[in-house]
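Why show two proteins at once? Because comparison is the fastest way to build intuition. When a single record is shown, students tend to memorize it. When two are placed side by side, the eye starts asking what differs. So, the first record is below.
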Amino acid sequence: MTVYIKGQQMADPPDTCTYIAYMSGHCDTLDMIFDDSEGTIKGMELVKGDTVQALEGNVDTGDMYISGIDYNGSQVAIRALSLPLSAFKTGNQHWENATFTAIIRDVLEETGLKVEFIDRPDFMYKEMTRVEQAPLAFLSDRLSLESYGIRVNNNTAYVFDEKAAEGKEYLLQMDEESFESSPVYSTDDARLVSEIENSYNMPDGTAIKTTVKSGIEGRILRLSMAVNTVGESLRFSNGMMRAANCTEYLAEGDVENLDRQPGEVVYLADAPKGHTGENLIYRIKNDLAGNKQTLYMRRPITGDY
């Protein structure tokens, strides 16, 4: 394993190194514990915001930013995030007659992050307001309403269509023999939504009322969500329904090596009913010191939303 701290390669790797990578919705985290008997790391006088990077096998964390340091005798524990400190500063912004891509660029400009549109959310908004929200938190919430996601890795924010990501062809078929131990399968029925009804009266008196259905058993939500058009109401309702229903069928398991990446699609064979078939890897816990991964997967949404 190769580790850089403040751009300097460490002579000895950490005793433990855990890197959790998310497809979207969360920042990646890196936790390392070093034996610093010679005081090398302590002498670097690390502070929050200093960069670290870990590489092993097919995993490269890219630049991560220190968020916490613990000194305990000869041990040094370092925790880092994929987001720079600038990404946590709250702010206010207002847009009128702007595309979503332009809004995303405006918000990310204050963080210093680059942006890459794997898919372009070119929705036009009559108006949008950000009120005392951190940049990535604001964008993640807004993108979720449009069924889009955002992931930050190595100082770049990647924006993508989650439905398109789910629809990719699988590259690998896995069964119980593919895992170090029997995989765990679960369902999350408590959050499921069957229908969302949105009724909103615009400031000019125009009434907007829409209903979308998922086709599965679940809760019925009746909302008064601020929108400017019927199209927005339908898209936002569908996005909320996807966020609630995407974890209906979950699976997880440990595998050897560091070959998989979040956002990949695999085919699970001989799994329990509802879990068999294509599954999206939405999170990976990478044990870089132990050369293994824990894969967290979910079945893609089957409805037209």
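Second record. Ask yourself what differs from the first in the token line.
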Amino acid sequence: MKGNRLTAIKLKVATYHLLAAFLLPAFAAGQIAESRVTFDISAAEAFIGTFEAMQQGKSEKQVDSLIDGMLALHAYAVSAERFGAKNQISPVSLEEYKRFLKSFISDSVDVQGNTRLGMLKSRYVDTYSNLPDYKKLVNQLKAQLNEYISGAVQLATEWLPKNVGLNAEVLVMFDIGGAAWAYKASDGKDYIMYSVLFLMDDSRNFDSDMFFKNLAHELHHVGIPLNSFANEVGYDSLPPNDRLKLYIDFMYDIVKEGMAQKFCSNAPGKFTPKPYPNEIYAAIPKGVENWNYFISDFQAINDSVKSFLNFIAYSDSVDAGQFYNRFVRYWTWKAGEVEKKEFALDRRYYYGAEVLGLVYTTLGKEALFEIMYDYRKLPSYFNLALKKAKPEGYESFLFDDRLADSVLHLK
């Protein structure tokens, strides 16, 4: 692994309590929150054992028992809550998942017409065909997860206010849903999941630096205090077409994903380089390709932000349906379908990383933290940062002062 961020701390227990004074020495004189992050890899181990039993020709009764035991583990309960019947996009139940896994005993793997299982099928087939490689990876993760977690917490908390601690559980499993996600479950706990299916590249290599930075990225999501502002303004009671509600919905993920992408995933930008120049940018090749395209298209993306904010601030009649339709078709991964491009990352990640990176470089870390607690400040602070840095053509990137002030005073 490049650099020494990960290897700085080595812990010998699965549950770890990291002293915040070590994490954020710049704030050593104040009260700093403690972080507690645990991990659970038992579901991944149980999955390997289940596929091994299938390959060894164990009876159907034995395989059933192994699958039932695996699906009874807490990690699968959390994943089922996240991707089961409540999921509005391609839900998959544990019953469907069990039938899918059992079909590996035969020569015909059956996804039962389920869209999500269909997308995951090739990865499960690769796992079944190359099970020793995946078992080796699971064992490596088990041996080093303490090290990964301690380093990732250190990186994530470098970019959070001193009074914010992390409290989460990291699940490593063969998931029924996605590649990685952060989720607050009905038990009130924050979970971060990594699917072993996605942890190796096409050459079946595991990039530990990529994993470490992505873990920091997800941990930052758990800690970032964006909900403080939403709660302060009574977001849940705002009507659907309220201007402040639309602004929060527009800006929330721009700030959340932008912070994690810039400072944890170590993203480069149009205005600022990678925060850690000698370390990798943690993105898959398609994500890097998207990123370079977005950098080249910053003017158009920034103009779109101005258009959205003008719509929110000044429209005589704010049509929430029209707003969200425009938003999804340009700012989310759905834009790839609209524009006939493959987007592994969407514009929210890029734009947030770009503007927040410049704010940090010119105005400092405290300005970033102010934006977290009131993201109406972002246009005004971006203007200040542009005027201070004076990058080429910066005048065309500025928000109109009246618009920035209107956003700042949305209520």
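One difference worth noting in the second protein: The longest helix spans residues 131-158.
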